[in-house]
Amino acid sequence: MNNGERARSLRKVRTTILEMLNDRGYDCSSYPIDIDEVEIIERFQQDTLDIFVPHREGNYKMYVRFYKIYSFDVKTFGKKELQQTVDDIRSNYPDDDIHFIILLHQEPTPPAKKALETDIERYKHVEVYQINRFVFNITKHRLVPKHRKMDENEVRELMEKYGCTRGQLPKIFSTDPVSQYYGFRSGDVIEITRYNIPTTGRSMYYRIVK
Predict the structure, then answer these.
(1) Domain ranges across the chain
(2) What top-level class would CATH report for the domain 3-136?
(3) pLDDT tens digits, residue range 174-193?
């Protein structure tokens, strides 16, 4: 991959990440989307692509780490690298409640994946993805309907309207690409809106995240 191809790919990824963070409720105003490929390459070479933004409503922040992207020196991202990356960032911001997205060129190793699943105390708010999944924003695809997390008042009204419980709702998994994009977690109730239905113009569906 030459510098031009790398710049175009990174620019697309960065744009999708900023769109995703904005959709999750983070204030990305200090990170303009429209930066040119020259600046992208400069940031890549200086390892300054990382993003650190506050949530607009919650008292926490999101740190997006571009972990040694396209570095041929990095063969694996294992449990040790996961722990070191998270601990290093936390040590730099000891007074902040930080959530993490770590972007990799390769898949994390099985021990790293297991640590993310089992060490809840350390990695509760840590997400790890391969960078190539963000070259395109999945929510902008014409076949992907609108997804929205419902608040507790809306959920209560929904349960009363249909005379059901949370557990009786159809499921959407937390590993679904759209769930991961929005950061949906187990127990969240999601409203899905499909448009262009010939009879009504739109149709509403409800799912619980598992």
Answers:
(1) 3-136, 141-209
(2) alpha beta
(3) 999 999 999 999 999 999 99
